[in-house]
Amino acid sequence: MDIREALYTTRAMRRVKPDPIPEDVIARILDAAIRAPSGGNAQNWRFLVVDDAAVKGRLGEVYRGCMEVLWSTIYKDKIAAAEATSDDPESIQWMKVKRSADWLAENFETVPLFFFGFAQGDPTGGSIFPAIWNAMLAARAEGVGASLTSAFMLKLDEALAILEVPPDEGWIFGACVSMGYPTGRWGVAPRRSATEVSYRNTWGSDVGIRIDGPLWKG
Amino acid sequence: MDIREALYTTRAMRRVKPDPIPEDVIARILDAAIRAPSGGNAQNWRFLVVDDAAVKGRLGEVYRGCMEVLWSTIYKDKIAAAEATSDDPESIQWMKVKRSADWLAENFETVPLFFFGFAQGDPTGGSIFPAIWNAMLAARAEGVGASLTSAFMLKLDEALAILEVPPDEGWIFGACVSMGYPTGRWGVAPRRSATEVSYRNTWGSDVGIRIDGPLWKG
Prior knowledge:
The structure is a homodimer of 218-residue chains.
Chain A: H1 3-9, H2 23-33, E1 45-50, H3 53-72, H4 76-84, H5 89-106, E2 113-120, H6 129-141, E3 145-149, H7 156-162, E4 171-180, E5 198-200
Antiparallel strand pairs in A: 1-2, 2-4, 3-4
Helix pairs in contact in A: 2-6, 4-5
């Protein structure tokens, strides 16, 4: 697969089939993760793949609790606004994302694999997220759908206890990535134009390039 | 370019030529950045590309100050250890990285482009680093070398003032990425095996897959 196709079509794929991911595919995903850079090339990272039904069951309970917190706090106003303007294209799109996230919470245990990334001494996330994103891009190349969630942050102690992460070694939770073969189709996700969110030399200055993306269209 | 080649060979490329990066290449890099996922698809990000000589000059001064702090604090013991075991392959490799980082500090102003990523409401870095890493992978596909540095964190107020980032809007600095056409060659950077840093189901448990990487060899 061409790099551009992977960059443009690796969208959040939460609805996946229960079919297991073969071991050689998992190997290629993990081997792609460690190719990412890390501060001082320290590689102070650990990757945890979860496919055991009992562990997924315990995580699923916590995950549903996290999502309840998320919807009733951080996204409370956003949901109310989207419901109040339900004909608005942006609201429609956002409620689609929410339903997809709800699907993942309700069907957590049926997802074949969860991938977790942890790092030590990584205050910005800059040493773990390129690795996590590499894993997701490598999964895309294998036809494996993935979606990144930070929701476990809301009940982190419970999640880390289930995964038996040592509490005294300074491991920072990066993210949880659900992985499986998608039920839906790949495609380019909607985004605001790069021109709108890019500046040149100083904050707020026109970037000086008109970017009518997506510049890759398949 | 195949996705695997990009994932395996996008290594830190600090030594670059002063040749400018064409505008259409910058456009494709920015358009790739915004294809990344972000929490709730909020896209609360901004990308700042810096190629103005005066701005680079001011940033370069601050950057050299940051690197002095970095070497004399966080990496002080590591440098001493590497110098004490200078025949050790790991020490040799680490001092190579340090010399490359020193090159970037000394030649900051000759690098044609710096790319900065910022996000709002992103405590883990999970909403900005996939975008930053997308930009670096897209750069790789264009033959543009890139290296990610968080060093500005050490004198963040000074750097943000130069870039005129509004201090009261909650913008979190993600990273600075240097970009230019490399003087050296692309290749797969050395890494510890994925088997060593991966677990299955719970922390410390054997991942159950022997991964004798790199699984992509070109």
